[in-house]
Each structure stands twice: as C-alpha cells, then as structure tokens.
Amino acid sequence: MASESDHQTGSQANVLVSPVVVETPTRERAGAQQRLAGALKTSRGRITGALRAMRDDPRLLFGVVLVALVVIAVFAPLLAPYSPLKYDPAAVAQPPSAAHWLGTDALGRDQLSRVMYGARISLSVGVGAILLGGLIGSGLGVLSGYLRGGIDQLITILTDALLAFPSLILALAIAAALGSGIINVVIALAIVRIPIYVRLARGQTLQVRSLDYVTASRAVGTPTWRILLRHIFPNIFSALLVQATLSISFAILDESVLSFLGLGAQPPTPEWGVMISDAQPYLTGGLDPWMLLGPALAITITVLSLNIFGDALRDRLDPRTAGRIGSTSLSSLTQD
After folding, report:
1. Nearest-angstrom CA–CA distance, 183 and 181
2. What is the domain class of 57-333 according to CATH?
3. 0.70 cut: is pTM over it?
C-alpha cells in the first residue's frame, strides 16, 4: 500500500508540475508575438514617416534612386543579362534593341551589363574616397578648432596650401605620381577632399566649443577625448553628413575623368569613365553615338540624384529651413 500511495503522490506531483512546463513555451510564444507586432508597428511608422517626408519634399525621392543604384551595384552578377567581359563578334556596335537595351560596344559586349558592373567601381571609389578623406579631414578640423594655438595654425596653413591647387589638377598629379589603379585613385581623391572637411569641421567645432555645456565640461576636468566624442562630434555630424553626400557626386565625376585619362580603372574593366574613353573614337566620326548612352546616363543620374538628395538632406537637418518644407522632420523617420 505504501508503494501505491507513493505512486499516486508522484502522479499528483506530475500533474501539478506539468502545467508549468506547458505554460512556459506558451508565454515565450506570446512574448515573441508581441515583439514581432511591435517591430511591425515600428516599421509601419517609419515607412509612413518616410512617405510623409517624401510628400512634403519630393526631392527625397532621389534617395530611392540612390538605393536602387546601390542594389544594382551589389547584385550586378544576378541582375546583369550578360557577362560584362563577354565578346560577341556578331553583335559589334549595335544600337539599343530588345536583346541589348543600351546597345553594344566595339567588341560586342553588352553595354547595360557593363554599366551595372561599372556602378560597383564608381560608387565604391566615391564612397571610399569620401570616407577616407572625410575621416582624416574631420579629425584634423576638430583638433584644430578645439585645441587652437600652434596646432590650429599648422593645420590651417597646410589646408590653405592644398586649397591653392584646383582639385581635379591636384588629383590628377597625385594619381599620376602614384600610378594607375583604383586604390591610387581613392587615395588621390581622398587627399583632395581633406581640406574641405578640415575647414567645415573646424568652423563647426569653434561654434560648439563656445557653448555652455562644453565650457562646463572643461571646467569640471572632463578629458578632452571624452568631450570630443560626446559633445563635439555628435553636434557637427549632420553638417559633415550633408557635405559627404554632396562630395560623393564630385568624387564619382573625378574618378570617371581619371579613368577616362587612363589613370584609374584599366580596360577591359567595366567602369563608366573607361566606357566613355572606349566610345570616343566612334563619336568623332559619327559611327556609333549610341555607345556613349549607357555610361553617360549612369553618371548623370547618379550625380544628379546625389546633389538633389544632398540639398534636401541639408534643408531638413538645418533647423532654420526645416520648418519651411513641412512639419515632417528627418527625425520622424527614426521615431517609433
């Protein structure tokens, strides 16, 4: 009887414990559903905010074009109808058609495919040059504006010396000295952009440096690096971001020029400047003007989209102009 009683007691214990085991996955599932619903609600809010911002300022629609260009560049191997290096003697210098939407070049290569692959190089060089030049220039500008004194004078003199040369001529000289190649073009364009960010970051830092909370931080002995990271950089980031958006377009233009002159990407690499260089002999004689269509459209659309989107971004990040273009501010895109 004792054994049967123990068995019944154990069975009752199992009955009492089993609902807890069953309820735990249910609670976890309910929590996961709540998190998913919250994430969906947040996404809908951000999409609604983005659509409202585009309605208030149609220039933001060019941001969609930029996203499309990035998608094309990243997924070019999947989206391109042909290989960018595939020769087709039977389709040499053909005008746009159903088989080749942007025509073919002098070697029968599909122009649309080469433009898609060329977006990889042009966007990578433009973004890479601005990131490198912007980081170096912004760092020097912040140090110059915050520390002042001899460091400020030295950085200012070097900046003025670089600004004394036309940017494209200076980039051409640096690229010629370093030699042809994509990496050397990135370095040349980054060096040319450094003075722009030095002056911008220095001016913004001088304004923020005089604010009361920065003065209070210095008075209580806050380390310089902490003031720079917590107070200076966050307050000048928006100006640097707008400048970077505008500078990428000029970097892409300069990179195309350098490649056109033979200092950037080398044939048969699919790059927009190289494609224009390959099409030049066929333009002078009027043999095939369509060969220029693809790379010229790509450069025009990219540069135009960056400039217009940069202007819209500048207006929305500037408190003096944000209220003139509608009640929707850029911060609404990140609010739940």
Report:
1. 6
2. mainly alpha
3. yes
